[in-house]
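Researcher: Next entry in the queue.
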Amino acid sequence: MTTRLGLLGLESIVYYSHDLERSRRFYVDQLDFAEIGRSSAKLETRGGQRSAVFRAGEITIIVQQPLDESCRAARFLGKHPPGIGTLVFAVEDARQAFGYLERRGATPISEVQTHADHQGELHTFSVTTPLGGTTFRFVERRGYESVFPGFEALEQSGPSNRYGFQSFDHVTSNFETMKPALLWMEHVLGFESYWDIEFHTNDVAPGQATGSGLRSQVMWDPQSGVKFANNEPWRPFFKSSQINVFAEDQRGDGVQHVAFTVADIEQAVSGLRSNGVGFMGTPSVYYDDLPTRLETSGIGVIDEDIERLRALEILIDGDQRGAYMLQIFLKEGAAYHDDPGAGPFFYEIIQRKGDNGFGGGNFRALFESIERSQHDEGRV
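Model: Structure for this entry, 380 residues:
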């Protein structure tokens, strides 16, 4: 009897959208992902949804658009705005993982299913989760090369990924109350606590009439390094917390953002901005205070020029060992596409230079950015 889940990593994410063409323009034309596969006509007829697969480095994103009201994508979009409906994890042994999860109280959607292509077999199953409408799918590939059954590979016309995307770094989810999700990750998945923080804008401006705060706890699987950051609103001003605003926009709990690693964040952000990609803004005062923060935090000297970081609006954080990380956040879907129906999901780009934390010192800047966006849109 196995005593661990046997995760190998986050293999792909499945994003449900009403507009597959808009997603194709975003991933291919703006982020320079390669479109590597599409759903076959047979799969679309059987499943009632159309799919496209985009990849850069080890990051695979599957976008699915409903063709009828009975499909999984339509059911998700009937309850939530466009967003992450499935996270797909690679495991060492699907049947062992199934037994492990079922013994620990997971709710499987199906038994382990086996599929074959010309190269090998795929063993897969899914479970429900406390992450809103998001499900988890676990896959074991024994030489199986197709993305999933019914997908057709596309010929690549040339090189892609000129911005240097590498892999998934972490997944962040927001909850009105996160304890059930934390307990589920610990007692069902077997994850462990990794990092936590409490933050409120009222801390630095006592007596203000409004503000925003959160509690955040990161859970992880030490074997694979898979990490989940989990947030809930924190008093005072619970209702105006950007975490609570997300829950209202999402119409429930759910995945707020997914982080990608890059080899060179300055090169990536400069190129992406030139290609029309929109990012959340960072207050200029953040960079005015940065030299002092670098000294007092113990980071000390960094490789990057602060004025260059200011121009690109890249955030920096680190620890007493001198290790640090650089990060930036794309605009959330509604602001990015100038479409209130596009939802609150967004992406983060991160370059780690020895620091494996979550930018606790940057939470204020992120909150201010999200709140400005929400204020501009009249939601707070």
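Model: The chain has a mean pLDDT of 91.
Researcher: Noted, moving on.
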